[in-house]
Structure formats: C-alpha cells, structure tokens
Amino acid sequence: MTLNDLAARSSSFNMRLHSLQGISIINWDKMKIPPKDRPALMGKMHRDAATWLYGYIAALVDRKLVDAGDAERMYCELLYLHEKHSSVVNS
Fold it and tell me: 20: alpha, beta or left, given left = phi > 0 and alpha = psi -120 to 50?
C-alpha cells in the first residue's frame, strides 16, 4: 500500500496529502491573508498535514488494516515530503 492508494480511498487523506505535496490551491485573496503572513501559514499547514497523515497511518496499523512494512515506507515518504516542502516554505 502507498500514500496514493490511501489518498484514492479517503478524501480527507487526499486533501492533506495534496497540502503536504504543495498541490493544494489556496485563494489568498479570498482568505485575506497578508503576503507577509503567508509563509508562516504554509509552514503550519504542512506541519499539520504531516502530523494528521502520520496519525491516520498509525491508526490503520493499530487496527491491522495496513501492514507494518507498508506503514514504515509511507512514514519515510511522509518525512521526505515534509522536509522537501518545509525547505521550500522556509526559503
């Protein structure tokens, strides 16, 4: 099982995965977020998405719905995505 497999089965997982990947579209004008505050908000959104996704996978492992080996691979991918996009947000 992969992150994309879980995203295909859960819209909540998909939304947060897209957020972590930097794919989600944010309408800054509608949200009325000043440009100076946007990097901090993006960083928080990425941290929140990574935490939520990690917890979701952990819950599936606890219920024995996901193999521990698959979960480890997904955790590694989450860490990679979080580090990759955190460096973009913080630059």
Answer: alpha
